[in-house]
């Protein structure tokens, strides 16, 4: 089992120029059952904060993006 930290989700969602595609691949492999992974409750709390900041930034730009559309 691999431990997944908050930055993996954040980089995938934000499409980070260096790590975005690699992090998206990690998440796709988890969703497909190719990789077994876990995360702590703290990661979930941090992820809520990250998503809140992204949502606020998008609202400021009058954009709407669904997380489900990213995958």
Oligomer: single chain
Number of separate strands: 2
Spatial order of the strands forming the largest sheet = 1-2
Question: Strand pairing plus helix content: what structural class?
Answer: mainly alpha
Radius of gyration: 13 Å
- State which percent range the strand residues make up: 5-15%
Alpha plus pi helix count? 3
Q: Main sheet, how many strands, which sense, barrel?
A: 2 strands, parallel
Poorly predicted segments = none
What spatial form do the alpha-carbon principal axes imply?
globular
Distance between the termini: 22 Å
Work out the helicity level: 55-70%
Q: Describe it for me?
A:
The chain is mainly alpha-helical and 71 residues long. Helix content is 58%, strand content 6%. Helix 1 runs parallel beside helix 3. The radius of gyration is 13 Å and the shape is globular. The relative contact order is 0.19.
What layout of secondary structure does this protein have?
Layout: E1 2-3, H1 6-14, H2 20-31, E2 37-38, H3 41-60
Parallel strand pairs: 1-2
Helix pairs in contact: 1-2, 1-3
Overview in brief:
The chain is mainly alpha-helical. It contains three helices and two strands, in the order E-H-H-E-H.
Features:
71 residues, mainly alpha, two-stranded parallel sheet, 3 helices, 58% helix, globular
């Amino acid at each position: 089992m691999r431990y997944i930290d908050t930055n993996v989700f954040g980089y995938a969602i934000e499409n980070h120029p260096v790590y975005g595609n690699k992090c998206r691949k990690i998440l796709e492999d988890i969703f497909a059952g190719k990789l077994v992974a876990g995360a702590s409750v703290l990661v979930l709390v941090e992820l809520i904060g990250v998503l809140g900041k992204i949502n606020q930034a998008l609202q400021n730009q009058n954009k709407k993006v669904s997380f489900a559309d990213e995958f």
